[in-house]
Amino acid sequence: xxxxxxxxxxxxxxxxxxxxxxxxxxxxxxxxEAGTGDEGVRMARELLPAIILMDVAMPGISGWxxxxxIKADPSTAHIPVVALTAHAMAEDRRTAEEVGCDGYLAKPIxxxxxxxxxxxxxxxxxxxxx
Length: 130
Ligand code: MN
Known about the structure:
It is built from five helices and five strands. The chain is of the alpha/beta class.
């Protein structure tokens, strides 16, 4: 079995980190974990993961600000970021677009949906005009 690409999980809540990282590892993704936005930005630059799952509500810099920094850095701007938000609010959806998020999941998030969203964003593009 080939190694799946690295997922960086940025989430301040330890219980959520365990839930999401456990399901991702179960289906074969290696997972790096960060507990703060600053740590997430630093690990994104160091590890260059294939995709980032970004909790929005965190102490220190928010997931929105961390995403802005990741998308403003040419070395990490290409990495897809999925926002994990507390509410499916229209304002959150707008902010996710503004800061450059590639996907959006509203909590409570069924673990299977985390896996589906990662797989969707990492899937090779469909051939165009085939
Ligand atoms: Mn949080």
